């Protein structure tokens, strides 16, 4: 078995701002506490201390080991929840003055999303962390080889576009389940005199036309036709030439997930512009792989990170830098 | 469905008599009629018109995402394609065009309009939870959208059951004092679907 964690990826995941976020802290009151008193203190914290916001992301108690053994620290609450004076008063009311000695400490302001964040932020104050398996982006070397071939094809399409005097951007859309190329396209904005005929939009449009044709043929085949040979016969039957279409219908039902570009991968030589990035959201694309970043108007990492935006109803993983050198070497630039 | 259509159109006509009619109302009314057509065809009810030099409508479009199996066939892109497909105009015509659209353009369309260097955009209601800055025939645009979204979408892989949804008729007043409609693309591109 090969170890997938040691494979060096030929592309890099474009992280969301939350995944890239560095450590930000908020102040909390903490206190040393005797192990025998922790139950009583936690009850006090839980029942009587005001909590401005949930602190589920961190642990309530930490253990600090040293030469003489260990000390327990308990997290009481955020400093924004109560003033020091009022908290001291509250502690006095509950007869805990001799047990608690308050001091201010920092904890992470946000729950970590990645393991790297967790490992760094956890040093400050222990954190509760469960890694989301959907964020995992591991690839087998066999899969990488397949992906590479798709990207090489996209570069080829960009080269074809250039030879036709078009803006040299190429893309292909692939069904990763079946390892099947669904559609290929390149930029045609020059020849069509249409500033929006970008490679990605062209590809999405082509797929839609393909799907529409398929759908129409199914609908046609389901419309009962009169038998031509026997006009006197009023009985409605399906014409015999509809059988292959019925097979398509069956296939379609088998692959019931064919909805727009749902679950498909797209390989594009250049980072999609903002329009194309949003078109990919509207098309429910599965994953995006691109080579060269587009600092002027890139929507998947450069200018915006549309694929991770909270306000949107669909998100997808995006990987960049794939065969970037090759794209640059060919001087494919748009 | 038919009585629905006539009602909406009648109401638009009534409004035109009551309010101080400007050229913007006139064009937005046309956009609304096209939005209604989308609604009647089971599409997301958004309609638009492109107006050349503030005078003539040179193209219109409405949402056709269901019909075309294409999630990007929004009203604006439909209209742009129909204008360019006539071969009567080249793409620099959009520099002289004003767009009237019933709903604030999404990010895809907003950036497309920017690439086309459109002169001005006027919209009916904002996109984000129907709130925002308001515009021309905002209430009509909102009601049309609400009517659409209480229906079920048969084209979705697993259509949501919406049997318990009720059509709300209350429309909150506009809080913002920003003058209606004029969207400056150089300043903002809002992210919303």
From TrEMBL, chain A:
One of its GO terms (cellular component) is cytoplasm. It holds the Pfam family dCMP_cyt_deam_1. Residues 145-319 form the CMP/dCMP-type deaminase domain. One of its GO terms (biological process) is tRNA processing. InterPro entries: CMP_dCMP_dom (IPR002125), Cytidine_deaminase-like (IPR016193). Keywords: tRNA processing. GO terms for molecular function: tRNA-specific adenosine-34 deaminase activity. The keyword tRNA processing applies. Belongs to the cytidine and deoxycytidylate deaminase family. ADAT3 subfamily. PANTHER family: CYTOSINE DEAMINASE FAMILY MEMBER, INACTIVE TRNA-SPECIFIC ADENOSINE DEAMINASE-LIKE PROTEIN 3-RELATED. This is Cytidine deaminase-like protein.
Automatic annotation (TrEMBL), chain B:
Residues 22-144 form the CMP/dCMP-type deaminase domain. Keywords: Hydrolase, Metal-binding, Zinc. Gene3D superfamilies: Cytidine Deaminase, domain 2. It comes from the Eukaryota. The keyword Metal-binding applies. The keyword Zinc applies. SUPFAM superfamilies: Cytidine deaminase-like (SSF53927). Pfam families: dCMP_cyt_deam_1 (PF00383). This is 555_t:CDS:1. It comes from Gigaspora margarita. The lineage of its organism: Eukaryota, Fungi, Fungi incertae sedis, Mucoromycota, Glomeromycotina.
């Amino acid at each position: 078995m090969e170890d997938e964690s040691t494979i060096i990826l030929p592309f890099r995941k474009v992280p969301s701002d939350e995944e890239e976020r560095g450590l930000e802290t908020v102040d909390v009151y903490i206190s040393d506490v005797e192990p025998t008193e922790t139950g009583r203190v936690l009850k006090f914290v839980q029942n009587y201390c005001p909590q401005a916001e949930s602190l589920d992301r961190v642990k309530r108690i930490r253990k600090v080991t040293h030469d003489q053994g260990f000390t327990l620290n308990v997290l009481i609450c955020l400093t924004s929840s109560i003033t020091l004076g009022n908290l001291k008063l509250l502690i006095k009311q509950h007869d805990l003055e001799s047990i608690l000695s308050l001091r201010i400490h920092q904890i992470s302001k946000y729950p970590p999303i990645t393991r790297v964040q967790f490992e760094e932020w956890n040093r400050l104050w222990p954190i509760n962390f469960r890694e989301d398996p959907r964020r995992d982006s591991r690839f087998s070397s066999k899969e990488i080889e397949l992906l590479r071939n798709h990207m090489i094809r996209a570069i080829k399409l960009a080269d074809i576009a250039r030879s036709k005097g078009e803006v040299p951007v190429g893309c292909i859309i692939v069904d990763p389940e079946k390892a099947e190329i669904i559609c290929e396209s390149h930029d045609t904005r020059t020849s069509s005199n249409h500033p929006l005929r970008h490679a990605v939009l062209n590809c999405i449009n082509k797929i839609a036309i393909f799907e529409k044709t398929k759908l129409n043929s199914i609908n046609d085949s389901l419309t009962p036709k009169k038998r031509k040979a026997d006009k006197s016969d009023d009985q409605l039957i399906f014409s015999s030439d509809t059988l292959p279409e019925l097979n398509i219908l069956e296939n379609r039902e088998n692959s019931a997930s064919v909805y727009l570009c749902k679950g498909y991968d797209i390989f594009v030589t250049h980072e999609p512009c903002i329009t194309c990035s949003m078109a990919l959201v509207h098309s429910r694309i599965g994953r995006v792989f691109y080579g060269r970043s587009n600092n002027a108007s890139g929507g998947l990492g450069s200018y915006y990170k549309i694929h991770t935006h909270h306000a949107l109803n669909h998100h997808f993983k995006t990987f960049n830098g794939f065969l970037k050198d090759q794209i640059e070497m060919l001087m494919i630039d748009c | 469905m038919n009585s629905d259509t006539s009602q909406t159109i009648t109401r638009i006509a009534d409004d035109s008599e009551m309010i101080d009619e400007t050229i913007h109302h006139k064009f937005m009314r046309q956009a609304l009629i096209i939005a209604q057509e989308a609604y009647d065809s089971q599409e997301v009810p958004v309609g638009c018109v492109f107006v050349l030099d503030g005078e003539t409508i040179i193209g219109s479009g409405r949402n056709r995402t269901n019909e075309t199996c294409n999630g990007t066939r929004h009203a604006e892109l439909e209209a742009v394609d129909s204008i360019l497909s006539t071969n009567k105009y080249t793409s620099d015509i959009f520099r002289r065009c004003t767009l009237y659209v019933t709903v604030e353009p999404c990010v895809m369309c907003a950036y497309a309009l920017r690439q086309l260097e459109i002169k001005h955009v006027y919209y009916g209601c904002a996109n984000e939870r129907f709130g925002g800055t308001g515009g021309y025939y905002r209430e009509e645009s909102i009601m049309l959208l609400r009517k659409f979204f209480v229906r079920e979408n048969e084209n979705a892989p697993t259509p949501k059951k919406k049997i318990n949804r009720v059509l709300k008729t209350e429309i909150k007043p506009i809080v913002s004092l920003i003058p209606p409609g004029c969207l400056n693309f150089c300043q903002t591109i809002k992210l919303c679907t």
